[in-house]
């Protein structure tokens, strides 16, 4: 760990009913300001606003950090997840066909993206260092 990326947990009493976290989008240095979100809500707690609260809190925490873009990878074009992300400023930017294998079948993955903080309108680095331009 040690990346400073948040991991949030929603509980009902002593039961974990959902979680959200951010992870590095890619290991190469050029992508260090881009992160990917992940959200899970227990089936028995769907439709109660838990996902909305978790994603909102995750975005807020990440905007307070150094990160400038957040990516969501939504398997099987899950309409509820797409609506959840749209409600938090994400836009669909593409679909990868048949890249996930889930429940015994190939599924598409919808890519969504939103800016964090200043997004791409400013340079996140104080001063350029050799090698920062590499991908």
Write the layout of secondary structure elements.
Blueprint: E1 7-12, E2 15-24, E3 34-41, H1 50-63, E4 69-75, H2 79-86, E5 91-102, E6 105-115
Parallel strand pairs: 3-4
Antiparallel strand pairs: 1-2, 2-3, 4-6, 5-6
Task: Explain this structure.
By secondary structure, this protein is an alpha+beta fold. Helix content is 16%, strand content 40%. It has 2 helices and 6 strands, in the order βββαβαββ. It has a 6-stranded mixed beta sheet with strand order 1-2-3-4-6-5, with helices on one face. Strand 1 and strand 2 form a beta hairpin. The protein is globular and about 45 Å long.
Describe, in short, the structure shown.
The chain is α+β, with helices and mostly antiparallel strands and 135 residues long. Helices cover 16% and strands 40% of the residues.
Number of DSSP-assigned strands: 6
SS-based structural class?
Answer: alpha+beta
Biggest sheet statistics: 6 strands, mixed
Percent strand equals: 35-45%
For the terminal residues, how far apart are their CA atoms? 23 Å
Mean pLDDT: 91
Low-pLDDT runs of 5+ residues are: 127-131
Shape: globular
Helix content: 10-25%
Q: Total number of helical segments? A: 2
Compressed to H and E, one letter per element, the order equals EEEHEHEE
Instruction: Describe the strand arrangement of the main beta sheet, using strand numbers.
Output: 1-2-3-4-6-5
Structural Rg: 16 Å
């Amino acid at each position: 760990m040690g990346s400073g990326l948040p991991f949030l947990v929603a509980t009902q009493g002593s039961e974990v009913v959902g979680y959200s976290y951010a992870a590095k989008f890619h290991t190469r240095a050029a992508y260090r300001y881009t992160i990917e979100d992940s959200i899970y809500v227990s089936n028995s707690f769907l439709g109660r606003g838990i996902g909305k609260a978790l994603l909102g809190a995750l975005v807020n925490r990440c905007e307070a950090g150094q990160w400038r873009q957040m990516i969501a990878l939504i398997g099987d074009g899950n309409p509820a997840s797409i609506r959840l992300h749209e409600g938090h400023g994400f836009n669909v930017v593409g679909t990868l066909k048949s890249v996930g294998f889930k429940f015994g079948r190939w599924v598409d993955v919808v890519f969504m993206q939103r800016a964090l903080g200043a997004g791409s309108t400013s340079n996140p680095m104080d001063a350029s260092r050799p090698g920062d331009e590499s991908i």
